[in-house]
Amino acid sequence: MQLKWLEDLLALAEAGTLAKAAQQRHVTHPAFGRRIRALEAWAGTPLIDRAATTLRFTPEGQAMLEAAREALAALATARRRPVGDTEDLPLRIATGRTLARTLFATWYARMAPLIGSRPVQVSTRVVQETTSLLENGAADFMLTYFHPVLALRLDPRRFTHLRLADEALWPVSAPDDQGRALHALSRRRPSPWLPYTTSLALGRLLEDHLHSQLKPPRLRIAIECDSADAAHEFALRGFGIAWLPRSMVAADCRAGRLHKLGDRSDEIRLEVRLYRPRRRLPAWVEALWEASADMTSE
User: Taking every annotated instance into account, which residue ranges of this chain make up the domain HTH lysR-type (predicted)?
Assistant: First the structure.
């Protein structure tokens, strides 16, 4: 059995078709099919239901897929964290750009006495990519938003989490010359809006929130943003209404640089979670996890 066959199986599950998976693995479609059949021959059973009209793994295929994920993650971890002294190895954290600026900074400040002079690597990605980093053993912790709409798919048998904080997206507007909100959430007159792209977790949350309202506010797109940082800056400049994390804009609202609009029904409430693999991590990283758990109970 070759290691690349397991990588092929994971690529197939991610891509959804043999053709796309072959392209992702930089081989021809027939060659990729032969490698999947070679894995099936080694396993002694079909892994794919070839009678199905779309990709469907057999029960044995699902079991093999799970085993492949665990094996590749373990190998990746062993490669990055050799046996011996792990005190000087960096703590690897995967998160989003918005959380890196807000709640990660708060968490790091609280954990600094335990971290000491040890290096920390922060990788900022969209949620699907941070999940892959954690699953593949390329991250020790993942800091992410959680909401049922986001459908975060992590196997609870392999990963656990802490509810690190509660968060909310607030609709905000810059003030006008009289200090009142420049824009309003109106059901009659459209207001300029600063939406997120739906590739962002915040974009999917906001889209679901507006679609679920019986009488949503009338909004017209002014500038579509691919980051909360951009939406924040545009909101401060008065370009439109933005739904921004409370942790990012609470100080602006207290200082009068922004106005919170609407009421609690116009907020989007979500959790911030810290994920980790269930396997044992280096002792000082385990100590960080315990301290993070204590932080949530305060």
Answer: 1-58
